[in-house]
Design a protein that fits this description.
- This protein is an alpha+beta fold.
- 25% of the residues lie in helices and 16% in strands.
- Among the domains are: 2-46; 74-107, no CATH class.
- Strand 1 and strand 2 (14-19) form a beta hairpin.
- The longest helix has 15 residues, at 22-36.
């Protein structure tokens, strides 16, 4: 089992040294104390944590490469009502939404275009 000895040098910098076993780490601490006068030492047992690398792919589509839509999107009945009721910004300030009248055919199904193999009919 590997061990790591950390200590503070005379100039105040934190340093560390690795040792292959506990006996070697203890001898290293003794040398630091007896030869270099280091008093602030710490001993840690180091255990390797297994890791794995996996391939990761990221796909990005730039806005310039997207083809133009081949279909026209029809506005929803609510959008049509908003255009009919509000012709300008000044009119929008005067309109009370609670008093707006919805057309009778707003619940009709709006046909949406298909988008290829992932769309549902």
């Amino acid at each position: 089992m590997s061990h790591m000895v950390t200590f503070r040098t005379e100039d105040g910098k934190v340093s560390h040294r690795m040792a292959d076993g506990l006996d070697e780490a203890v001898r290293l601490i003794e040398d630091l104390r007896n030869r270099e006068g280091v008093e602030d030492t710490h001993l840690y047992e180091v255990e390797e944590v297994p890791i794995q690398f996996h391939a990761y792919y990221r796909v990005e589509v730039s806005a310039d490469s997207r083809p133009a839509a081949d279909f026209a999107v029809e506005p929803s009945p609510a959008d049509v009502l908003a255009v009919q009721v509000v012709d300008s910004i000044q009119d929008a300030q005067a309109v009370d939404i609670d008093q707006a009248v919805m057309p009778e055919n707003t619940h009709e199904a709006v046909e949406t275009p298909t988008f290829g193999i992932f769309s549902r009919p």
